[in-house]
Input
Amino acid sequence: LADAITAALAALPEGAPEAEALKAKLPPPPKPSNKDKKAAKDGDAAKEAARKAAEEQKLAARAKKKEAAAAKGVKEGGGKGGPAGKGADGAKPDGAASKAPAAKPNGSGAAAAAPVHAKPMSNKNYELHFGAAAPPLLAVVAARLVRQEVALRRVDPKALPSGCDSVLYLPGGSRSLRGCGAIARYFARLAPPELGAYGAAGDALSASEVDEWIEWLSASGPPAAATPPLLARLARHLRMRSFVTGHAASLADAAAWLLLRQLPAPDKACSGAGVHVARWWGCVEALPAFKEAAQLLFGAAKDAGSLEIPLPNAERGKVVTRFAPEPSGHLHIGHVKAAMLSAHFATQYEGKMILRLDDTNPSKEKGDYETAIVGDLQRLDILPAKVTHTSDYFDKILKLATKMLQDGVAFIDPSPKEEQQALRLQRKPSPHRDAAVEENLRLWAEMQAGSAEGVKCCMRAKIDPASDNGALRDPTIFRCNLEPHHRTKDKYKVYPTYDLACPIVDAWEGVTHALRDRQYSDRDHQYVWFQQALQLRKVDLWGFSRINFVKTLLSKRKLQWLVDEGRADGWDDPRFPTVAGILRRGMTVQGLKAFILSMGASKNTNLMGWDKIWAFNKAVIDPSVPRYTALLADGLVPLSLEGAPPAPFAETMAAHPKDESLGKKVRFFGPTVLLQAEDAALIAEGEEVTLMSWGNAIVRKAVAENGSLKRLDGQLHLEGSVKSTKKKLTWLADTPDLVDVELVDLDFLLTKDKVEEEDDIKQVLNDHTKFVHRGRGEAAMRQLRRGDILQVERRGFYICDEPYVRPGDPIRLLFVPDGKSFFGV
Output
């Protein structure tokens, strides 16, 4: 029936009056079955998928076409400067779909987060482009806060998108974010939750508080007007808090710090705002992220330079640096700066670093030292692109030396060493300087043979014997050495000096930038002369200031003497300034790197105390190490607690009270606890005290014998308020599970701040440098491993030097200085 009526309707002319009557007779359509519904749904989904695929193909083709056009414009010199992939008006390409985190309002007046153009060239790391005189402050601090390396690029403001002050290019160059606020939030979200950069981990309220603080601060006006209300709010807010939000420095702390940092005297302003603000300010100022940002953004510290250190003639992707230590000992703190800066530049410019072992003196060098150097670099998280040896090039250097004699730019000097030194001081030439080429070649052959005549000679370069620069007065470039080389054995009898080999091998290995200690800047002229005289490829030199610490011995020969004489435990003695020694003492790689980079491009060489570097280290370990309790074994006083369970019991609790991500530990409780004698002596009868990690107790009675306190009797009062007590005490449950510990304090090896070369090491040695204190620790300390850093409550930071093995063998803990204290007891 339905088909017949439909056919009749089709045969009628349009507008026929009987059409409406026929339509009324049409039966209602049948109700679709579940099967029909599913088929229709699948068909619609297929159509939608096909439509989306077609749209994505269309967008991809359009974006590819624009990318090709942009790349062509860059090649042909068309278009304006700035990141490729956008027009002069800064418009976004149509196909730039974003997968970046959605950004909340940044409250800074900058553009909201948005995907922008793709770059035709691929960047391996984050790049932050900005057009103002200074980089976007909050974004830079956020990157430092979450330990994210970012290359800063100041560009023409016209090259940035319209109305935008900064653009962050993500690795690969195909994704980007606009605006300081959006970029800062992106980095905070990028960090592991336990860092707390966006508030406490998994706490939506804490993250929202971060947003609220940032927006409030951005609306507060210029620093002069915003400071009074900010300081007043901080004074109230920080009474029971260490940080603005969460349990670690977050973006909210960064925003508040940035505003205060722009004041003429921020330290004075914060100290005048009360103890809570002063405490917070001192804490954030000590954090590596804020220290780096202060030096980068505000020029903090006179001797500090920018972390974005420029290298002359550096091209991205083509920079090659090298670290060239002599394998005559272990690496020490003096080498660390050269190694870390060389690695930093290679990373900054997306290049590579070569480790070259300068094995040109067989009298001092050993294969064991080479292994130690490679191991030390691994501990410092420095992985060179390749490892080479100067001895790999001995044959080629010998041929070059022969050519120098033939060309008349070098000569063989058979004069006694003392005579050569005297003539250098008098600025007079050697009498053999103008010897015939044939005679020079004859003596050169004798030197290479190691003959009796040859070993008396050396090869010298003809530069300028009368030069004001002593390094240019015909320096020695080859000398005889008959000791076997640890790699080449007895193959060679002559060896090049470091001053000759270094500029030659640098050029041959493709080094573009050689970092050199400014202490030896006079030799830079010599380096340049060799490269020019030998027609080698030019290598750019970059000088840095060396690190000198008080009461520190860096001479490898003298350090070896201490080891040989039994005055030290070995090259990894925690009192040694070696890499192995300072890491064993509790220095972290992050703290060490932060300290080195904080010095930036400083050219000043100063004698520094160790407090600064240990303060950097404390900022790294403080929020990230577990807490334990240990008491000195001498004079422990028992406190009996009425109301406590009659038998000892255990509870599982966080190893760090403010960061559960650091794991759990088992803590024992019991009817009797042990207190440190000096704490117990200060408690008055009837006084209420707080037992940390448990609760309050009221001390009812103190029992003494012969003037010495023997025990305390008290009552557990867990309903008491910890805020009302003046004494917060560390304690240990008196149970058989306690472990023996040794708390070790270490002093400087030397008694003199600056040791001169002529000083007799025996006269400046400190005879008492190790102080061992016996103690008792909580049972959970059994889980410590060698190298674990921990905080002993109310003592300070320690590193586990010897872990628990068996009852009777104490756990050995070395005190880690924190910048203020060098001793824990």
Notes: Residues 37-41, 69-122, 300-307 have pLDDT under 50 and may be disordered.
